[in-house]
Design goal:
Blueprint (H helix, E strand, L loop, with lengths): L5 H10 L3 E2 L4 H6 L4 H10 L3 E2 L1 H9 L18 E4 L6 E5 L36 E5 L11 H22 L9 H6 L11 E13 L3 E7 L4 E6 L7 H5 L8 E9 L6 E8 L18 E5 L11 H13 L6 E7 L21 H12 L7 E5 L17 H4 L5 E3 L4 E5 L2 E5 L5 H7 L8 H11 L28 E4 L6 E5 L2 E5 L8 H6 L7 E6 L5 E5 L2
Parallel strand pairs: 1-2, 8-10, 11-12, 12-13, 13-14, 16-17, 17-19
Antiparallel strand pairs: 3-4, 5-15, 6-7, 6-9, 7-8, 9-10, 11-20, 15-16, 18-19, 20-21
Length: 538
């Protein structure tokens, strides 16, 4: 058993159940054959090959077994041969063929990808992380009514300015109070007006009408959207509105027995054109790996696949292109997150959970920088945006950058928006198109609304910062979420979307709901080519 390159040798050893460390590379490359080493390791019960273990194993290998055997050529075996010509006569048996080495195995359960799309080893590249927004140390809210009002006013101003700058609206919007004051003028289809504001009091009425209120700084206007008589794209794509999202509405007032109502003919969402992604340079064409919801400390944490993951990081050719490992929240299962959680925990002390997570991340190679966000199970405030984990927790970790949730940052110029994704619960409960089995639909809805968590008072606790920091001011090149334990990789209008997989098996609550998670799938994205690979470990 002879292997040519170092990568082929690592793959051969991995297939034999042996984990190889870099310190053993020199000795292993000098071996003419790997078979004696594998046999010695198996007989000795050794699974980790480092410089010392390889030296000890080779000491017990007979020296003659280290001589590389010459290849056997294909010859025909015969019962008799002619004494003079030496040519075979009689019955010819099956030929003895040269034992050509089989091609190296595919990387651990990976999806199809080309190695040319992952061109650079990460250890050759310096880290380049630029954080554009992180709430850590910047939260100024006191939770007063004035803070809440300021937050919504900030949201309205930011998104309305986006609409005006991009010319999304058919005409310049009018304030609600001015539109109401001139309602007698705008009372037919020939005289329309456009308003922009926050949506509230959304409800469906018969026969399929959508009633809601639009509010800006000046007044509220009651609106009604009727289903069109023809197959208009407007109603076909409208699967609901969310409380507190920002929209533009064009229409006219119709007088009746009661107060005039604003009949909406068109709804305008914030601008989201086809995005042109930035690329890392050819000299920094490394990859980022994405994972979320590890839930260490839970009885349903998957230990064996984690060991496979660490082995993959240390031996796989694709793993050598990974420079960044982004963990998008819920690194631990936490304590006291929900009633009766203690009976589901194998580690019942919060700090021990974080300590064990730090220990398990030590297996990640030192050339990889871990970027860690909190989630709703972590030891930070539940209200979003969430600050980074406490320094007392951070001190146990190495090669780890701690940021808040959400975090807007760049890796070698590639803009990444990472958000744990708690608000997916609100999108599922509100919009007809969004389900837990399709979290990517919630991610699309966030981008379309230019906001990560619009609804106040829903399933997602929100911190009323004077400036709304959950607005998406810049379209990301990569948008990543987690939280609902699914998995997705795709594109929406030029943005690469990643819904990160979990490392937790199905919970009792998920089983009760009939929800099947998609655990133990690592997503890898190259920052230069944007090629992706999804690596399953179960």
């Amino acid at each position: 058993m002879t292997s040519g390159t170092w990568l082929e040798r690592c793959q051969t050893l991995t297939a034999a159940g042996l984990l190889t460390q870099a310190s053993a590379r020199g000795m292993i490359e000098e071996l003419p054959s790997l078979l004696p080493l594998i046999e010695a390791a198996n007989s000795s019960g050794v699974h980790l090959l480092n410089e010392s273990t390889v030296e000890e194993l080779m000491a017990i290998v007979p020296s003659e077994s280290l001589i590389e055997e010459p290849p056997v050529t294909s010859t025909a075996q015969a019962t008799l041969s002619d004494p003079e010509s030496k040519s075979p006569i009689g019955r010819v048996l099956a030929p003895v063929r040269s034992s050509a080495s089989s091609p190296p195995p595919r990387p651990q359960g990976s999806s199809d990808y080309s190695t040319e799309d992952f061109p650079m080893e990460a250890r050759d590249v310096d880290s380049e992380i630029e954080v554009h927004f992180d709430i850590t140390g910047q939260s100024t809210t006191e939770g007063r009514l004035s803070d809440i009002q300021s937050c919504f006013r900030s949201r309205l101003v930011q998104i309305r300015d986006m609409m005006l700058t991009s010319r999304t609206l058919p005409r310049r919007p009018m304030s609600n109070v001015e539109a109401w004051r001139n309602r007698q003028r705008y009372n037919s289809k020939d005289y329309e007006v456009t308003v922009v504001g926050l949506v509230s009091e959304v409800r469906w009425t018969r026969p399929g009408n959508l009633k809601f209120v639009v509010e800006d700084e000046t007044a509220q206007i009651s609106c009604l959207l009727k289903p069109p008589s023809d197959a208009s794209p407007l109603h076909a794509s409208l699967d609901g509105l969310m409380d507190d999202e920002i929209i533009g509405a064009s229409g006219y007032f119709l007088s009746g027995d009661r107060d005039p109502i604003f009949w909406v003919r068109d709804i305008h969402k914030p601008p989201l054109g086809n995005h042109s992604k930035a690329q890392a340079g050819e000299d920094s064409a490394v990859s980022a790996a994405f994972l979320s919801d590890i839930h260490l400390g839970s009885k349903t944490f998957l230990y064996s696949p984690w060991e496979k993951l660490i082995r993959w990081f240390n031996t796989n050719p694709l793993a050598r292109t990974v420079k960044y490992f982004v963990l998008s929240g819920d690194g631990v299962d936490g304590v006291g997150i929900y009633p009766g959680q203690e009976r589901h925990l194998v580690i019942k002390d919060l700090f021990k959970q974080y300590g064990e997570l730090a220990r398990m991340l030590e297996g990640v190679p030192d050339w990889i920088d871990v970027i860690m966000l909190p989630g709703n199970h972590d030891a930070v405030r539940p209200a979003e945006p969430q600050p980074a984990l406490d320094p007392e927790v951070q001190q146990d970790y190495s090669n780890t950058v701690f940021v808040g949730n959400p975090c807007d940052f760049s890796l070698h110029g590639v803009r990444i928006l990472s958000y744990h994704g708690k608000s997916i619960d609100d999108f599922v409960s509100t919009l007809r198109s969004v389900t837990y089995s399709k979290p990517e639909m919630a991610m699309r809805a966030m981008l379309e609304r230019r906001h990560l968590a619009p609804s106040w008072g829903g399933k997602t606790p929100l911190s009323p910062e004077p400036e709304d920091r959950l607005v998406i001011p810049v379209i990301p090149d990569i948008f990543v979420t987690g939280h609902v334990h699914g998995h997705f990789v795709g594109n929406h209008k030029g943005t690469t979307m990643v819904h990160s997989s979990t490392w937790q098996d199905q919970t009792d609550f998920q089983r009760m709901l009939g929800f099947q998670p998609k655990p133990c799938i690592l997503t890898v994205v190259n920052l230069h080519t944007y090629a992706t690979a999804s690596i399953p470990f179960v």
